Amino acid sequence: MIKQLHETTDYLIDKGFDKPEIGIILGTGLGQLIDEIEILKEVSYNHIPNFPTATVEFHRGKLIYGLLAGKKVVVMQGRFHLYEGYTQFDVTYPVRVMHLLGVKKLLVSNASGSLNPDYKKGELMLLDDHLNLQPGSPLAFKGVDKMGTRFVDLSAPYNAEMNSILEEIARENKIKLHKGVYAAVLGPQLETRAEYRYLRIIGADAVGMSTVPEVIVANHLNLPVSAISVITDEGNPDNLQPVDIQEIIAMAQQAEPQMITLFKGLIKRI
Q1: Predicted confidence (pLDDT) per residue in 167-204, tens digit
Q2: What's the Cα-to-Cα distance from 117 to each of 44, 204, 253, rounded to whole Å?
Q3: Which are the contacts of 108, defined by CB distance < 8 A and separation ≥ 6?
């Protein structure tokens, strides 16, 4: 695994990925941030040695290197999910590569469904904590101790300093930014009414199918991470409406400019 990671990293360095400072993972329907970047290099996932390939039709599958808000960034335009058949190691492989490239901070976005009745479609939620309801762990493999401590502390998985800056930027720009708990489930099916009730009972404010594996590995690598959910649908079990994935993508794209404002503002200040 270590050999594969170094092969991948060496390939990207040869392609011109020169000491990026910030890593960014873009979630479902969230690709407009690319328009804000001065792109210096971009490589399709299927050209990168040992890299997984995005199989979801609305995930582009490119690794992009460039300048954003005066900082060198490397951006995943399209992420990987367990529901695509990938392992936990596959899903988190890019985070380990980013770290080897030199990334010092990680920003993650996702599209999620609200469980908290106060969180409405088109609003944003800053992740303060999470519930890992996905199978397995990205740290449960032989040799993990060669990459970092095996028993990673997750008492504060999201970086308090970066989260505080994001909240400040939201106030300055009059952006409604909730702060809550994200539940990660396997998917790809959406939740039943009973499952929405269960997730509310155990303390989740929003639910999605990503992010948590990457956050766990970021903590394993001592890589400070912040994550924002774009609320694209509302999981009200007493008035549950059928979900159309195209509507979710459209809602994500509608709300994304606010997320871009937050990410760009944060990158300027860190």
Answers
A1: 999 999 999 999 999 999 999 999 999 999 999 999 99
A2: 39, 11, 22
A3: 24, 25, 27, 211, 214, 215, 225, 226, 227, 228
Q: Which two tokens stand for residue 31?
A: 């690709």
Predicted local distance difference test score (pLDDT) of residue 220: 97
| pLDDT tens column, 69-109 | 999 999 999 899 999 999 999 999 999 999 999 999 999 99
Spell out the residues 6+ positions from residue 160 whose beta carbon is closer than 8 angstroms to its own: none
| Region 57-74 average pLDDT | 87
Run of H or E residues at 85: none
Domains of the chain by residue range: 2-269
Rounded Cα distance, 139 and 142, in Å: 9
Kindly tell me the sign of the dihedral angle through the C-alpha atoms of 238, 252, 154, 168: negative
- Residue listed under structure tokens 């519930």: 131
CATH class of 2-269: alpha beta
Q: Give me 76's structure tokens.
A: 């995943």
What pTM was estimated for this model as a whole? 0.95
Find out whether 217 and 174 touch, Cβ atoms under 8 Å.
no
